[in-house]
Design a protein that fits this description.
Blueprint: E1 6-7, E2 11-17, H1 22-27, E3 37-43, H2 46-56, E4 63-69, E5 85-91, H3 94-110, E6 114-116, E7 124-130, H4 135-141, E8 149-154, H5 156-169, E9 173-178, E10 187-192, H6 195-214
Antiparallel strand pairs: 1-6, 2-3, 3-5, 4-5, 6-7, 7-8, 8-10, 9-10
Length: 219
């Protein structure tokens, strides 16, 4: 493992429920017309799955009806297939949900990567550019669907320092701040602006995290 080597997520378990029991659907707060089928996905990296679930909403008639990180992260799972997060996609038919699952997994494995900030691979961060949001993250960030988003995550001190520099480096606004500690003890934010501004924010965030990793006690 070296600096800026990708840290790729692994989808651990997937299931499709073709027709959710209506009593259970009520507990899950599903829409009785739109949400007949349900897809379940676990992954060993939570932020990778969050952005991948959003991607699914752009390729299938599905909604992200549940997505939660597990406390303490993937190092302390409740079981071998639990990972760091569970996500649920709901849609009107099994075919739509299957398409959503396929899009989610493809994006997770091919694009939604963390990166190492040190040679040991022990300090990882997520400087992820979303060129066009789906319905899930646009709702989370209170922006119109299709807007660019810089999804920035790192350990607490690194994220705090790097978010400040990211916002100074580009014409972006912070829509969401994930203050430390999160369930997985990371921190970060969702920043929006033009695509070029979000890209610049991601680059500045990355440079700042690498700077802290290289010289932790320099100030």
């Amino acid at each position: 493992m070296g600096i800026l080597d990708p840290v790729k997520p692994s989808v651990l378990a997937v299931r499709l429920i073709p027709n959710v029991d209506r009593g259970f659907a009520e507990k899950l707060k599903l829409d009785s017309d739109r949400h007949r089928a349900l897809g379940l996905i676990t992954c060993n990296i939570d932020d990778a799955l969050y952005v991948s679930l959003d991607e699914a909403t752009k390729f299938a008639e599905v909604d992200v009806v549940y997505a939660k990180s597990f406390y303490a992260g993937s190092g302390y799972p409740s079981g071998p297939l639990s990972g760091e997060i569970i996500g649920m996609l709901a849609g009107p038919t099994p075919a739509e949900v299957r398409s959503g699952i396929d899009a989610c997994i493809a994006y997770c494995e091919e694009s939604a990567w963390f990166y190492s900030a040190n040679d040991e691979g022990t300090l990882n961060f997520f400087p992820h550019l979303i060129s066009s949001t789906g319905t899930y993250l646009s709702d989370a960030a209170s922006i119109p669907a299709g807007q660019p988003l810089a999804y920035l995550i790192a350990p607490p001190l690194e994220a705090t320092y790097a978010l400040d520099l990211a916002m100074k480096a580009a014409d972006v606004t912070m829509q969401v701040y994930f203050e430390p500690p999160s369930e997985t003890n990371f921190a970060g934010g969702l920043l929006t602006g033009s695509q070029s501004a979000c890209r610049a924010a991601c680059a500045a965030f990355q440079d700042a995290v690498l700077d802290v990793a290289a010289a932790p006690q320099k100030y």
